[in-house]
Amino acid sequence: MATTKADAGPKPGVVAALVDAQRRGEVTATALVERSIAAARATQTLNAWTHLAADKALARAADIDRRRSRGEKLGPLAGVPVGVKDQIVTRGIPTTAGSRILEGWVPPYDATVIRRLEAADAIVLGKLNQDELAMGSSSESSAVGPVRNPWDPARVPGGSSGGSAAAVAAGVCPVSLGTDTGGSIRQPASFCGLVGLKPTYGRVSRHGAVAFASSLDQIGPLGRTVADVAAVFEVIAGHDPQDATSLTAPVPAMDDLGEAVAGLRVGVPGEYFASGLDPFVRAAVDGAIALLGANGAEVVPVELPHTRYAVATYYLVATAEASSNLSRLDGVRYGHRTVSSVKDIGELYARSRAEGFGPEVKRRILLGTFALSHGYYDAYYKKAQQVRTLIRRDFEQAFERCDVIVGPTSPVTAFGLGERLGDPLQMYLMDIYTIPSSLAGNTSVSVPCGFDPEGMPIGLQIIGPPLGEGRILRVAGQLERLLPADERKPRVYAEGC
Amino acid sequence: MDIEKVAKLARIELTDAEKERFSAELDAILAYVEELAAVDTEGVEPTTHVLPLALAMRADEVGEKLDRAEVLAAAPAHDGHAFIVPKVL
Fold this sequence. Notes:
The complex is a heterodimer.
Chain A: H1 14-23, H2 29-42, E1 49-52, H3 54-69, E2 81-85, H4 112-119, E3 123-128, H5 162-169, E4 175-180, H6 186-191, E5 195-198, E6 218-223, H7 226-236, E7 265-269, H8 279-294, E8 298-302, H9 310-325, H10 345-356, H11 359-372, H12 378-398, E9 404-408, H13 424-429, H14 435-440, E10 443-451, E11 457-464, H15 469-482
Parallel strand pairs in A: 2-3, 2-4, 7-8, 7-9
Antiparallel strand pairs in A: 1-3, 4-6, 5-6, 5-10, 9-11, 10-11
Helix pairs in contact in A: 2-3, 9-11, 9-12
Chain B: H1 3-10, H2 16-33, H3 68-73
């Protein structure tokens, strides 16, 4: 069946609908924020929020309504409530990154992405719960307790941006920001039935994102539709002089999301369909690929032979960088300081950090410190950086033969709370499909492609070459429209925004 | 792994129970990452950065500054001008 631009555009976005409704005078920004706050409170069993900035959000909404009534021109996200992962620094709003070590910190500045959202007249609704310092795949390592999945509160929402996914899936706000180092936007999007975009490394400024692994970290949007994610991406992307690694390439307008996939070469890596892949995930992903093929895309097999080394590579590179980055959390200038008596500043550091960090963060700092230590650097860190080069080359070669690469986002659907906490290595291996494109600096998006028999969402990952956000969102938008409509709602759901 | 030495380098105090637990877990993780030894990386450049980047230059001008009172308000201990820490020397 052939599709045309007219009949196969992406689903209409929630963000655009909210902006239009305000423009037509059907609703005010104040009413939207009130709805979101009520929905956040009605779904608080999810533990998705670390801080709801209700008063600040209402004040901003009142200001936007006032400016609208005066006839001022407003930004593209005017009056839209946005949730922000607690990993992202917000001036005047507590920022803990899910860690006791930042307990009570009220930052004196805003991250660049927050400035850009506010310049577009979006409204920061509050801060979203997450794995401690973005380390985890289940949002269970937060200092304030685990986040629950709105589709089944006995299960995890994925991680580390679990609150960012849960709040949007539960209907509280239409979009949120997460951060992704090895899959922390894409995997929770997959587990919660959302669209989640990891932009190309350097596409979005990292200024004001609490640093985890600086060569991998990226901020990106989660939403219920491709159009919503594209709308936020357009606002937050682009060069920032305050992040020396941010790219200077112009950000194209995301206005061709409806273009057909006919003629597009879709690469399918055999390595992403190996043992360990849940059969229901496999069936849903195979079905989505077949649908792209039936609509004119050319499906080609590709090889990513170093995939099996990606997790080991990632856990050396990311922990090494983390051990260095997190040395700033020392109890001197902000955050937690021990109240016990210490004999010198060395003991103050070591005890404040012992009290402030949870076990997953300690484990990773220790691993990274070891990998960088004298006598082991070449065998671990340098070796991992060399294998990283081979993983990048895999993608470069694959992209000579295809335009996008598709596969599952995660080998499984959302699992039970506590089910996988016993063995850290098994938890790390869950990120096998999201880690390689992070190591290569590519852009990737997870888009819903079905449900397992227990009603848990399944995500398809679309990987593009650097700066390929427009291309992967176009494929995601097509798929969104081609897949059979499924209007089911999560069990924990409130009519917010 | 010499867990006590690594913990000292990382500036994290560990309890005896933590030392035991992390030693076992980290040994298992290190055994897993050993698989990288099997990859032939002879002559392969390490990736320090995924994209080609030139160092950015900017004009030597004072930009936006953080507000001192706001910064100090977040500190565990300060005297209105500086952060206070225990004796260093």
